[in-house]
Amino acid sequence: MSEIALRQWRQLDAFHNRETDRPLIKYFDRFHTFQAVCGENVIRSQGFDRKERRRTPNEGNIRRRWRGWVDRRIPLSDEQQFTQKNIFILPSGAGLVFGLLLLVMLMTGINYQNSLIYLLTFMLGALFVAAMHQTHRNLAGLRLSLVSAGEGFPGDHLTFRIRATAEKDAFGIQFISPEGETRRINVVPGEIGEFELPVPARQRGPVPAGRIQVETRFPFGLLKAWSWMRPGSTGVCYPRPVTPPYETGGEEEGVQASQPRKSDDLSHADLRPWRQGDLSQRVLWKRFARTGEMTIADWEGESGEPVWLDFNQFPGADRELRLSYLAALVESRSRAGQVFGLRIPGLTIEPDQGSAHRSRCLRALGLCGFEKHVAEAGVAAAAGGESVYARAS
């Protein structure tokens, strides 16, 4: 029993001996008994301290309701078209000053009964109303589409490329990312406007673009019409590369396998068409000069045993450290032009080489542990390295 509760209990005892205010004493008796048994912290945590409840602001609740209402009107989507249902408009700072001047002019005209002041006030008021319609019209009909979401390492800025089209002229459209990055474009009917918004990558995994605010103050800056775009696709932040303490995966065989054979004897070679990701050193350029076809020669015994980068190669390390080790190995083997494969929980990428293969492996490492996106990484790997988030041009 706390000292404060004990003191209140003794005061209650003194009041309990009185004959007056018996109902009030019973109420305090029950309350303080509960307080003495449970303690003051429990009372406050359960909301019984009315003084404490009065101090709790409603601002957080109002903000959550506002965001929920906006999210229902503007759902997650890679395409967003602005109409009167999702555009908001209010006077800007200059508009508020302009409205205050109109009010002063109106009061002056009423006071002096001056027709010229009336005329000027109503003309400026009509201009304000016309500007309101024009500002809203400038944003209505604008269509935005997410073209691609960026990928990179922690500390990089992932580039989200967005395409804008409009049914009519749209001037002075400003885009503001959650980090405060700003882009400003003009969109003309029949033309496509594209811009890039950088989003910082802080830790491994999917990187959402967040709420991209779209606003305009055209034509006079008296009013501000705005809305949001909430892309559903996310960028990918790769693991931070950390050099492993030892090399694994048959490095010597992999080095030998990665070196193209300098020989003109094609009797023991397997000829195949060029594929995206093949190194230019492996192309038979003399044959290309004769036939115009890009051909790759795979000699017998050249491939050897494939080099596998396995998640289970580093026992004792936690998941993030293993992924960092694998990211460093992917980078080193890609720079050396080696053929390698990748095995991580839930996904296996067959041995290959080239920049597309590197991107597939790093993307899979970045999404490892995020079950919803690992499947998308597997689809991208099967599709030949095309970005999951890329849209058709």
TrEMBL record:
- Which keywords annotate this record? Membrane, Transmembrane, Transmembrane helix
Q: Which domain of life is it from?
A: Bacteria
Residue spans making up a coiled coil are none
Question: TM segments?
Answer: 87-110, 116-133
What spans are recorded as compositionally biased (Basic and acidic residues)? 261-271
* Spans annotated as Disordered: 240-271
Return the protein name.
Answer: DUF58 domain-containing protein
Give the classification, highest ranks.
Bacteria, Pseudomonadati, Pseudomonadota, Gammaproteobacteria, Pseudomonadales
